[in-house]
Write a structure and sequence with these properties.
The chain is an alpha/beta fold and 356 residues long. The chain contains ten helices and 15 strands.
């Protein structure tokens, strides 16, 4: 007797515009056949799934980017996932192996292709790296951790002797919480995080060692930036775009740097990526000679192994802390995704699907 199988599909598109955020009704949970394994494939049981902001763009008919495909109506959602091999018809993969993929379907049981030289096919998870904490491949050792470290090293121009101030938006999120810690470890003297609740501000300062937290919903962000960054801002790790980014830029120093990692505040709009800045803010960027280059971590795949090694060393020595917000059950994937889009998570938003 084969196991029952289910999947989450895209029922409808939310549409673009500020009044069209994603809703649970855009998704549907459906029964589906238990997969048959073909040569070159592996059959997997899903253990954890990741809810990530970029997936909002994939819900549109046009993602607005050249590196993301749109989800098809009625078809299974896919993203970053990790699971265990049940059956293998692929060389070098065996039953019991833990594997991950950036094209993991939101499904209880699935077949995955293996092989290739990019990060879009299934690959084995190093058990020595994660132990039994498999969801670390979604956060610390996945796109958030890699974007934090590689983004800072490639675009931040950190100088440990320059007494630099580093500001990060969505500072209690998956990437921002790591970026602030990495900035400190790389040598930034003043680390400031911008969050949406007092609880998150306390988390980044008390637990993660940020110097300051700013609640953009209840505080005057310009006044607080002036107070917490008296010598101006040298590096800004941008996860949100919009009004927060416009405010930060006005406090940046000459020859400073923006690490343009994401703009979650614009993902429900018709703006392209990266979104254009208002004229007065763009004038500041140009007059202050501020760098603002589009940053895509997938363009640095060759740096992943060395970066993961560094993240692991920091994590295992206690210098880097990780927080996860975990939802349970395949049926709750849409709920977790929408909560993450609304800032309901602290650290990485994970959905636990099954035990090993």
């Amino acid at each position: 007797m084969t196991a029952a199988n289910q999947k989450v599909v895209l029922r409808s598109r939310p549409g673009k515009g500020e009044n069209n955020p994603p809703r649970e009704s855009n998704f549907a949970l459906k029964d589906c056949p238990y997969p048959e394994v073909e040569d070159g494939q592996i059959l997997v049981k899903t253990l954890y799934l990741s809810a990530d902001p970029y997936m909002r763009c994939q819900m549109n008919a046009n993602t607005g980017t050249d590196y993301l495909h749109s989800f098809e109506l009625g078809q299974v959602i896919e993203g970053n996932g990790v699971g265990v091999v049940l059956t293998s018809k692929a060389e070098d993969f065996n039953r019991g192996d833990i594997v991950e993929s950036y094209h993991w379907p939101w499904q209880l049981y699935a077949t995955l292709n293996v092989g290739g030289l990019n990060c879009l096919t299934a690959s084995k998870v190093d058990r020595k790296l994660v132990g039994s904490h498999f969801s670390l491949v979604h956060g610390l050792y996945g796109p958030p951790g890699l974007a934090a470290l590689i983004g800072i090293r490639e675009k931040g121009h950190v100088d440990p002797n320059a007494n630099q101030t580093f500001v990060v938006s969505a500072a209690a999120g998956a990437c921002g919480s790591l970026a602030g810690q990495v900035a400190r470890l790389e040598g930034c003297a003043n680390v400031v995080g911008i969050c949406g609740t007092d609880e998150k501000c306390c988390f980044i300062t008390n637990d993660l060692g940020f110097d300051h937290g700013i609640n953009y919903k209840t505080e005057d962000i310009h006044a607080r930036l002036q107070e917490t960054c008296p010598n101006g801002i040298d590096i800004y790790f941008d996860n949100v775009g919009g009004d927060i980014t416009n405010a930060v830029i006005k406090h940046m120093n000459p020859n400073s740097h923006i690490i343009l990692c994401g703009t979650i505040s614009t993902y429900n709009s018709d703006l392209p990526y990266p979104p254009p800045l208002p004229d007065d803010v763009q004038q500041v960027v140009e007059s202050q000679n501020i760098t603002r280059d589009r940053f895509l971590v997938i363009n640095y795949i060759e740096k992943f192994p060395k970066s993961i090694k560094q993240l692991s060393q920091w994590y295992k020595s206690g210098k880097l802390k990780v927080r996860e917000t975990i939802e349970g059950g395949l049926a709750n994937c849409p709920k977790a995704f929408i909560s993450m889009m609304n800032g309901g998570n602290t650290g990485k938003q994970i959905v636990h699907i099954a035990y090993l």
